[in-house]
Amino acid sequence: MSKNPGSPSKPLTDYPRPSVAVDVAVLTVIDETVKVLVVDHPRGRALPGTFLHPGERLADAARRALHDKAGFDSVEFHQMAMLDDPERDDRGWVLSMAHNAVVPFERFPTGAQSVAVADTGILAFDHAEIVTLAVDDLRRRYSTAVDPSGLIGDEFTILELRRLYEVIYGRRFPKDTFRRHLSHGLEATGELSREGVGRPAELYRKTHTPLLPGAAPFLWNRSG
Amino acid sequence: MSKNPGSPSKPLTDYPRPSVAVDVAVLTVIDETVKVLVVDHPRGRALPGTFLHPGERLADAARRALHDKAGFDSVEFHQMAMLDDPERDDRGWVLSMAHNAVVPFERFPTGAQSVAVADTGILAFDHAEIVTLAVDDLRRRYSTAVDPSGLIGDEFTILELRRLYEVIYGRRFPKDTFRRHLSHGLEATGELSREGVGRPAELYRKTHTPLLPGAAPFLWNRSG
DNA sequence: CTAATAGTGTCTCTGAGACACTATTTG
DNA sequence: CAAATAGTGTCTCAGAGACACTATTAG
User: Fold this and answer.
1) Within a domain: residue B148?
2) Residue closest to D17 C1′ by Cα
3) What is the pLDDT confidence band of residue B145, given thresholds at 50, 70 and 90?
4) Spacing of A73 CA from C1 C1' in Å
5) CA distance A205 to chain B (A)
6) Do A125 and A213 fall into the same domain?
C-alpha cells in the first residue's frame, strides 16, 4: 500500500474512511516538576489536538494545532502511537496520532496553561494515557544523550543538569557519579557560574557526542 | 480529540478524509538469517498490507491482511510508525501504519515467500524503510528480555540461543559472557540435548524474569 | 586414547557507588 | 576564621571480556 514509482493509478477502495486527528503532549520542566501543556476544552482541560487537513502531514497538523490552540511555534515532534479504539470519540470514527514534544518553559507562550504530569487524572478523554507515553519517551531519550531536547540552556553547571535529570526521572543521582558519567557528553567552557554562595561552578556546553544506547545503565538502576 | 464520556455529540468537521492502511513486516529467523515475509504485488514483491475497514482496529486490519494475503493467523503486532507522506501512494491520499510481528519460521504457512532483511532493496514502495524499523525494534526488544517473541522453542541449549542472538544482531558473542549474562533469565530443565558430537548441552527454559532495561549493555557494545 | 563440544575458574579492566578529602568562593 | 558549595582521589563491588582449564560425550 504505498509509494509512487510510476505505474497505472488504480482507484482506491471505496470504504468509509476514518477522520484522522493528532494530539500533542508538550512537556516541559518548571518548578522542579515535569508539566504538560493543556488547553481549555468543552469537556475539561485537554491536550491540544486537531484534525488532519487534506494533504497535510501529521507533524504539520501537530504544529498547526499547537499554533492555533496555544500560540506556539517551532516545536519538534515525535510520533508515539496511533489511538485507534473505534469508540474513543463519540462524534464518530476518529483515529488520533499521539505526538510528543519537549520545550523549555521559557519558550511557552505567556498565559499557556500546564499541569504536572502526576496530575493528568484531570484531563479529558484518554489524554492521561498519552502523557504517560510521552514521559516514558522523554526518559528513554534522555538516557541515551545529554539533554537531547534542549531543556537546559547553552551553558549550565553540572548541578543544574543534575537537577534537571532528577526531575525527569523522579529520583536523586549521586553527584560524583553523575558528573563522571555525563561529562563524557560535555565540554567545559572555562567560565564560572557567578551565582550563589560557595565555590563557583564551572560552566559546560553539550558536545554532540551521543552516548551509546545502554551507555547510561546507571540511569535505570536502583538507588538514589 | 477523543473519548466517549457522555456529552453532546457534535458533528465531525467535514474535511476530506485519508484512506488508512496497514503494512506488516513479519520477521523470522531461518538459515542463520533474519528474513521478512513478502507477498506478490503488481509492482513487485511487497509487505502484506490492507486498508482499514470501518470500525476496525489497526491491529485487526494487520491480522486480516496477514490472513488474507499469506494464510497466517495468531500473530502479535506492534505499531511502529505512521507513514504519512501525502505523495507516497499515487492512488490517492493513503496513510499507512507500519506494524511489526515476529514469528518462528515453523509457523510460516507453507509456500510463504520471504527475503533476507539485507536484501529489501527489491521491495516495492517505501517498504525497505519499514523493514529497517522492524529490525531496530526486534533488536531493542531482544536486548531487554530473553527471546520475547518466542523465536526459539520451549527448551533449547545456550548455544542455540546464542546463535539466534548472533543472527539477530549480526555479530558474534563470546560464549562465556553470553552464558553468564543470559542465564539470569533462564532455568535449567535438568535434561540434556542429545544432538551432535561432544559433551551434551543442558537444556534450558525461559523464566519470566524480564531483564532490566539497560541490563544487557554488552549487547550494545563493541567487540564480537 | 583423540576429537569435539559444554561449561567453569579466574584474572583484568572498566564503570558505578560511597565516602572522605581538597578547592574556592562569601561573609 | 566558618559556612557553603564544587570538584576529586580512592576504595569496593559487580559485570564484561579473555583465556585457559576441566567435564562429558562419540568413536
Assistant:
1) no
2) B177
3) confident
4) 80
5) 26
6) no
CATH number of the domain residue B114 falls in: 3.90.79.10
Q: Which domain holds residue A205?
A: 158-220
Distance of CA A39 to the CA centre of its chain: 16
Question: Is B124 part of a structural domain of the chain?
Answer: yes
Q: Indicate yes or no: CB of B1 within 8 angstroms of CB of A57.
A: no
Model confidence over A194-208: pLDDT tens digits?
877 889 999 999 986
Same domain, A200 and A136: no
> Same structural domain for residues B92 and B55?
yes
- Closest CA to the C1' of C9: that residue is B176
Using one digit for the tens of pLDDT, what is the confidence trace for B72-118? Answer: 887 899 999 999 999 988 889 999 999 999 999 999 999 899 999 99
Cell numbers at B189, concatenated: 530443565
Contact A201, A162 (CB under 8 A): no
For chain B, the straight-line distance linking the first and the last C-alpha, in angstroms and rounded, comes to: 49
Q: Give the one of A3, A59, A220 whose C-beta lies nearest to B212's C-beta.
A: A220
CB < 8 Å to B219, chain A: 214
Query: Which tens digit of pLDDT belongs to each residue from A20-77?
Result: 999 999 999 999 999 999 999 988 999 999 999 999 999 999 999 999 999 888 789 9
Strand C, nucleotides < 7 Å from a protein CB: these are 3-10, 15-20, 23-27
With 0-12 / 13-18 / 19 or more C-beta atoms within 10 angstroms meaning exposed / middle / buried, residue A10 is exposed
Global pTM?
0.87
CA distance B134 to A141: 19
Same-domain status, A137 and A188: no
Strands (E) across A52-185 are located at 78-83, 94-102, 113-116
Q: Give yes or no: residues B126 and B65 share one domain.
A: yes
Nearest to A163 by CA among A201, A132, A199: A201
Crossing angle of helices A158-169 and A127-142, rounded to 10°? 140
Say if CB A25 and CB A134 are below 8 A apart: yes
Q: Does the residue B56 lie in any domain?
A: yes
pLDDT value at A142 more than 70: yes
* CATH code for the domain of B198: 1.10.10.10
Domain end marker among A97, A113, A142? A142
**Own/partner pairs, A201-209, CB within 8 angstroms, 24+ separation:** A201/A157, A201/A158, A201/A159, A202/A157, A202/A158, A203/A155, A203/A156, A203/A157, A204/A155, A204/A156, A204/A157, A204/A158, A204/A161, A205/A154, A205/A155, A206/A146, A206/A147, A209/A184, A209/A185
Residue owning grid cell 561432544: B198
